[in-house]
Amino acid sequence: MRIYFTFDPRPDLKEPLVKQFPHVEFIFHARLDEEELEKADVLVTYGEDLNDSRIEIAKNLKWIFVASAGIEKMPAKAIAERNILVSNVRGIHKTPMAESILAHILSLKRALPFIYENKRNKVWDKKAQLSELNGSTALIIGPGAIGSEIGRLLQAFEVYTIGCNRSGEDAPFMNETYRIDELESQLPKAHIVISMLPSTPETKHLIKLDHFKLMRDDAIFMNFGRGNVVKTDVLIQALEQKLIFHAVLDVFEEEPLPLSSKLWEIDNVTISPHFSSHSSRYVERSLEIFKPSLEKWLNGETDVENKMNILRGY
What we know:
The protein is an alpha/beta fold. The protein has eleven helices and twelve strands.
C-alpha cells in the first residue's frame, strides 16, 4: 500500500501517522510529482493539483482523500469514470470559520474598523454607529456542519437563527428551518444573512439582485461558502445602491480577486482572501479524519468518513 501526500505535514503530525501504520509506505512531497502519482494507491491532496491528465497517469489510484471541503476544482468526470473513491474533511472547518464569521460580525457591530482607522490617524472620535448583536436575527443559507456551529455561537448572544436548506428539515442550532425555495420569504427578517452554500450546479448564481432588494437596508451579507453563489456584478450593484449595510466576503467568483475589481474600491464591503478556515490546527484535524478512514480502508471497507459523490460536488 503506497500513500502519496502532495503536501508535507509537520514532523509532530507526520511521525505518529507513520508509526501507527508501519506496513504502509508513505511518501510526502511539498507538491505533486507525476512519477510518484503513477505509483500511488491512495492520494492525500488539497485537490487543486489534479486534472484529467494526472488522473490518467495515476494508474493504481483507488482513493483520493481531499484535505478540503470543496472539490469543485477537481476533474470530477475523469475521477468518476475510474470509479475512484473520494472523501474529504467536511466538518473540520467549523471551528475556525465560525470564529472568523463571529469576529467579522462583532467587528462591524462594535465599530472596530472605525476604531482602528482613528488609531492610525491619531483621532479621538466617539461618533461611531454602534449596535448590538444581542437580539438580532440571522439567516444561515446552508446550515450544515459549519452553519450549525455558527448558529450555536450566535444563539449564545441570544440571536434568533433561521436556516435554509434543500429539504427544510430541522438543522442543529436553528430556531426555524425552511426549504431553499422559501428563501425570499425569510430574507426580510434577517439582520445578518450568511451563505455557506457549496459550489454545485444548483447553487451557481442562486442569489440575485432581487434577493438583495428583499434584505433589510441595515443587513450584513456574508459569503463564506463559495464565490459563485452570487455574480460579482450583482454584489457590486447591491453595494453601490446601498441595498444592504455591508458585505463580508471570504470567497469570490475569481480568486485571487483581480486588482481591477470594483469591490476593492467600495467602502461597505470587507474583503477576506479565502482564509477563514485557516488554522494552525488544520492539518491536525484533517489527519484525525484520515486515520480512522485509513483503518477501514486497510480492512477492506470503503465506507470511509465523508465519502463523497464527486459528480454532485458534495
